[in-house]
Design a protein that fits this description.
about 270 residues; alpha+beta; eight-stranded mixed beta sheet; five-stranded mixed beta sheet
Length: about 270
């Protein structure tokens, strides 16, 4: 059976796709844990962000498996660039949170997404946290955490919201002023976590995540996880995310919180 023969909006998970996502994440987890908290050299890319042998080995293995199973699909990965394909494209971030990984912090993850380029939709996305044995999978309008369905919080007012971002370093000075203003209107704010904070939002443990400077392989997998749990993800202008989005993203538990956040972010000079 070809993936193209399966409707992407079915109510239940596609019998072919979900196990394959899990197989990919299992393979990535083995490689990540083999290198985690072991002596590990790293290099700096052109943007000064670090990359390790583990990043490269994971992406290489994921590409190998995808190419065997779906040889006509495209692949866009953080470490090895783009391989063109037909209707479908995989987005891979082998280790999201490399700085956490190389410093022994367990809050790093592997991000995997599949996009239908013809329909301009994200078919499925997965956040896997190897060191924590935690995994979120979003597809067909639902999200599971370690196999059990989850949903976002019911918090609807910004003053009651818990807001996360990965680091102030990811913002321009202007965007930081906007985030600083927004986050101080929330109940409290927390820093750190990279992709993990979006899993927490999907499971109802935080209410808003606002970030900047993300690439498509950073956020494509997050969208079906957040939205399958009942949340919403947009850019800072309120538009749906797509591979060409500028990297400024908002994940919110509901539309009401999203609108309140957009009202503050939209007031920037």
């Amino acid at each position: 059976m070809s993936l193209a023969d399966v409707p992407t909006q079915e109510a239940s998970f596609d019998a072919e796709l979900a196990p394959f996502f899990n197989d990919l994440a299992d393979a990535a987890r083995i490689v990540a844990l083999h290198h985690f908290r072991s002596p590990l050299d790293f290099e700096r890319k052109q943007d000064s962000s670090p990359v390790t042998i583990a990043d490269q080995a994971i992406e290489r293995e994921l590409r190998r498996r995808i190419s065997i199973r779906f040889p006509d699909h495209g692949i866009l990965g953080e470490e090895m660039g783009s391989t063109p394909g037909d209707r479908y494209t995989w987005y891979l971030d082998p280790i999201d949170g490399t700085k956490s990984f190389i410093s022994g912090m367990p809050l790093f993850g592997t991000l995997i997404a599949l996009s239908d380029e013809r329909e301009r939709s994200i078919v499925a996305g997965m956040i896997d946290m190897p060191a924590l044995a935690e995994r979120w999978y979003g597809a067909a309008g639902r999200t599971t955490f370690n196999g059990k369905r989850v949903s976002v919080s019911t918090t609807a007012d910004l003053a009651d919201a818990q807001i996360y971002t990965s680091s102030p370093d990811f913002f321009t000075p202007e965007d930081w002023r906007c985030y600083d203003t927004l986050s101080r209107k929330a109940m409290f704010r927390r820093f750190g976590g990279d992709c993990y904070q979006y899993g927490l939002l999907a499971s109802g443990y935080c209410d808003l995540v606002v970030e900047a400077s993300l690439k498509s392989f950073d956020f494509m997998a997050l969208v079906p996880v957040v939205e399958g749990a009942g949340g919403v993800m947009r850019d800072w202008e309120g538009r749906p995310l797509n591979p060409m989005s500028d990297g400024r993203v908002i994940a919110a538990a509901n539309e009401r919180l999203l609108d309140q956040a957009l009202a503050v972010l939209g007031s920037r000079a």
